[in-house]
Amino acid sequence: MYYLYHIPGKKIGVTRNLNTRVTLIQGYKENEYEVLEQSYDIDYISDREIELQKSYGYKVDRQSYKNLINKNKQMQINATEQTSTFPCPLDKLKGRLMDDLNLIWQTSHGEFEITKENIPWIIQNAKTSMFNDNRSYIYNKAFYEAFFNPKHSPQEALLNQKSEQTLMFSFDRFELIRKWATERGIYDKGNSHTQYVKLMEEAGELAQGLLKKDAYEIKDAIGDMVVVLTNLAALEGMQIENCIDSAYNEIKSRKGKMTNGTFVKQTL
Questions:
Q1: What is the predicted pLDDT for the residue at 160?
Q2: Does the predicted TM-score (pTM) go above 0.70?
Q3: Contacts for 192 with CB less than 8 Å, ≥ 6 apart
């Protein structure tokens, strides 16, 4: 049985297990959500979810439920030498992991397993694929160090992972975005005006996420805006890194005070 549930003011979703997905994972009690419909037909319930998300004005899932959930099989995790990729976006990952507890897959670092103990780590460290927004991944070595290497504690592994992530962001994150955009013809066939329109669309999604206090939507919108700004700068013959440096050099010595929640610079 598939349940189409509604958390007023938050979202509309589909699940096979209300207690696990809505109460245990999302933290809502029975009196804080309602079941709109239920059906054994995954095609019907998936289409109905999208229809009602639009009707209620909520963010519409990029993929329908039927495309994310395989009724008869556990999710197929694609393991390369460096990463393990899950066939779902970040905002669906926690539920899929809970659905597939004790799923085992093979990697270059040995056998990995999904457990209640390591799901929080996966959620915290997973990233959206640069090539497919509907896929997410973790680094195998970091996961191994956190849970499968007896020589290191999870706390030590997490600190090392954060350090590696900081270095990666500093040196090649924007370059990866430009590589992604180049491969998709954005720089050859796109222009600054379309990127600006895209930026405004993402700003609207950010505003919606802030109003709903939806952490996933806020994170997604901020990330998308950084990608668009990176491409916009490239189309204008600039690098976003230089734009950031220029802005920082201008504000680093600026003095002022907070007024009504806004920093107001000091004027001479």
A1: 53
A2: no
A3: 232, 235, 236
